[in-house]
C-alpha cells in the first residue's frame, strides 16, 4: 500500500474524521467546562548553614541535604502542622509540588487550591512551618542554635489566573486524540476489511484489466436496463466506457463471444451482460445476448420476453436455433432466452450441441454475450468460458472478498478459460471520485486504464 492509497482512503472517509474531530473537541470543551479551576501559589526558600568546623570555616549545606528537604516539604508530618483534619492533610498533600532547584540551595513549593486566597495562605504557612521543622531537626543540642536555617526568598502571592483547566491545551489534546482514534480506526477497518473497494485492488487480485466501474444507483434494481436512461446518464456512460475498453484488449485477436460471470450471486452480472449488449448494439454492432443461466434465468424478464422457448429447447433439439431467437428492434439486438429450466444444466451447457450453437452464432453476429450463473454455483460458467473467447468477471463493491476473486480466477484457469477483464459494480459516488481511472466521458483516461499492465 502506497501513500496515494492511504490518502484516497482518508479522503473517502473524511466525514468520519470530521465527526471524530467534532466529538473530540466537544468532549474537551465539556470536560473543561465541568472542571473546577485551580490556583497555584508558590514560595521559594533557601537553606543556608551556620555550622563552623575546627578551622572556623563555614560548612555549606550539601545538595543532597537540599533534595532531602524537598521531600520533607510534601510530607504528612509537615502538612499536619498547617491543617487539622485527616481529609485536609490528604487533599493538601496531593496538591503540593516541591522541588530542589538544580545546582542551587533553593527550594520551591507550589500549593494548588480552588480558592486563590487559600492557596496563598497554605503556601505561606508551609514556608513558616518548614523553617521551624528544619530548625528542630538540625538542632543537635536544644540549648544551642541550629546549624541550618531556612529563609524565604520569594513570598507567595494571591494568583490572578487559574493554572487549570487550560481550555486551549485541552481542546488541542482532544482534537489530537480524536484524530488519532479516527484515522487509526479507518486504517484498522481497512486492514480487517477484505472486500474489494478499488479498481487497483481488483486488478492486483485478478491479474487482469479493470474494464469498467459501474456506479451504484437505487433505481437499478427496479430498472436494471439502461434503455430508458438518457444518453448522458452516469450508467449509460459507464457502460459505453466498458464497451470501448473491450476494443483495447488483444487488438490483434478479434473476440466474438464473451461470458459474463461473477464470484457470488446478486453481484449484477446479468444486468451487466444485458447493458453491455445494449451498448454494443447502440454502437452499430450485431449483438446477441444468451441467457446461459439455466438455474436462475433473468434475461426473459429483463427484455420482456413471454415465449418460454429458448436455449434449453434448442439443445434438446425441440426447436431450431432461429425459432428460439427473439429480436428487440427497439434495442437493435437479439436475445436467446434460457427456455425451460432443466434438471441437468451443466450437461446441456457442456454438450457438443452447445458448441455448435456458439459456432453458428459467432458466424452470424459480431458479438455473442452469455450470462451465466456465478462460478462457484457449478461448472456451468467455467464450461461456457472455456468454450468462448473469454470471460468478464463482475465484482460487487464492498461485498466480494479478496478470496472470492482469487477462487474465481483459479476456477477459470483450471479449465483453460481466460479472464479478459473485470467490472467493479455498484460503486458508491464517493468511491468513484477517489478511484483512479474513473470519469464520466473521460475516454482517454479509461483507455489508459485498460491498457496499463498489472504490476507485481
TrEMBL record:
Pfam families in UniProt: AAA_31 (PF13614), Wzz (PF02706)
Region (Disordered): 437-456
Residue span(s) of domain Polysaccharide chain length determinant N-terminal: 1-84
GO cellular component: plasma membrane
Organism: Nonomuraea polychroma
Enzyme class: transferase
InterPro entries for this protein: AAA_dom, Bact_polysacc_biosynth/exp, LPS_length_determ_N, P-loop_NTPase, Wzc-like_C
Name of the protein: non-specific protein-tyrosine kinase
Amino acid at each position: 500500500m502506497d501513500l496515494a492509497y492511504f490518502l484516497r482512503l482518508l479522503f473517502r472517509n473524511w466525514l468520519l474524521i470530521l465527526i471524530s474531530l467534532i466529538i473530540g473537541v466537544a468532549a474537551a470543551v465539556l470536560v473543561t467546562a465541568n472542571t473546577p479551576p485551580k490556583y497555584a501559589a508558590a514560595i521559594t526558600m533557601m537553606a543556608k548553614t551556620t555550622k563552623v568546623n575546627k578551622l572556623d570555616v563555614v560548612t555549606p549545606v550539601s545538595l543532597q541535604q537540599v533534595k532531602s528537604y524537598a521531600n520533607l516539604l510534601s510530607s504528612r508530618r509537615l502538612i499536619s502542622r498547617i491543617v487539622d483534619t485527616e481529609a485536609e492533610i490528604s487533599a493538601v498533600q496531593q496538591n503540593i509540588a516541591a522541588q530542589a532547584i538544580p545546582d542551587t540551595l533553593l527550594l520551591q513549593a507550589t500549593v494548588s487550591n480552588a480558592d486563590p486566597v487559600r492557596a496563598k495562605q497554605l503556601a505561606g504557612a508551609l514556608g513558616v512551618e518548614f523553617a521551624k521543622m528544619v530548625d528542630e531537626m538540625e538542632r543537635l543540642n536544644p540549648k544551642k542554635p541550629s546549624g541550618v536555617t531556612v529563609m524565604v526568598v520569594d513570598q507567595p502571592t494571591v494568583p490572578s489566573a487559574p493554572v487549570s483547566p487550560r481550555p486551549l491545551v485541552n481542546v488541542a489534546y482532544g482534537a489530537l486524540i480524536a484524530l488519532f482514534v479516527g484515522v487509526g480506526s479507518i486504517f484498522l477497518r481497512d486492514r480487517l476489511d477484505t472486500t474489494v473497494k478499488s479498481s487497483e485492488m481488483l486488478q492486483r487480485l485478478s491479474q487482469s484489466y479493470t474494464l469498467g466501474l459501474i456506479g451504484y444507483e437505487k433505481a437499478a434494481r427496479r430498472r436494471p436496463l439502461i434503455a430508458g436512461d438518457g444518453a448522458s446518464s452516469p450508467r449509460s456512460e459507464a457502460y459505453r466506457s466498458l464497451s470501448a475498453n473491450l476494443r483495447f484488449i488483444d487488438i490483434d485477436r478479434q473476440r466474438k463471444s464473451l461470458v459474463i460471470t461473477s464470484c457470488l450471486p446478486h453481484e449484477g452480472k446479468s444486468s451487466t451482460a444485458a447493458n453491455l449488449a445494449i451498448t454494443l448494439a447502440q454502437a452499430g454492432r450485431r449483438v446477441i445476448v444468451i441467457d446461459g443461466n439455466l438455474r436462475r434465468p433473468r434475461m426473459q424478464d429483463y427484455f420482456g420476453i413471454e415465449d418460454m422457448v429458448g436455449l434449453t429447447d434448442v439443445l434438446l433439439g425441440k426447436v431450431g436455433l432461429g425459432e428460439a431467437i427473439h429480436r428487440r428492434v427497439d434495442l437493435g439486438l437479439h436475445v436467446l432466452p434460457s427456455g425451460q429450466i432443466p434438471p441437468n444444466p451443466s450437461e446441456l451447457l457442456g454438450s457438443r450441441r452447445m458448441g455448435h450453437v456458439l459456432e453458428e452464432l459467432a458466424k452470424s453476429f459480431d458479438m455473442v454475450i452469455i450470462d451465466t450463473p456465478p462460478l462457484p454455483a457449478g461448472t456451468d460458467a467455467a464450461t461456457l468460458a472455456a468454450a468462448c473467447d473469454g470471460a468478464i468477471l463482475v465484482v460487487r463493491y464492498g461485498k466480494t472478498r479478496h478470496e472470492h476473486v482469487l477462487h474465481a480466477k483459479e476456477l477459470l484457469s483450471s479449465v483453460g478459460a481466460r479472464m479478459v477483464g473485470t467490472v467493479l459494480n455498484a460503486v458508491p459516488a464517493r468511491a468513484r471520485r477517489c478511484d483512479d481511472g474513473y470519469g464520466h466521458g473521460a475516454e482517454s483516461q479509461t483507455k489508459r486504464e485498460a491498457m496499463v499492465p498489472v504490476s507485481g
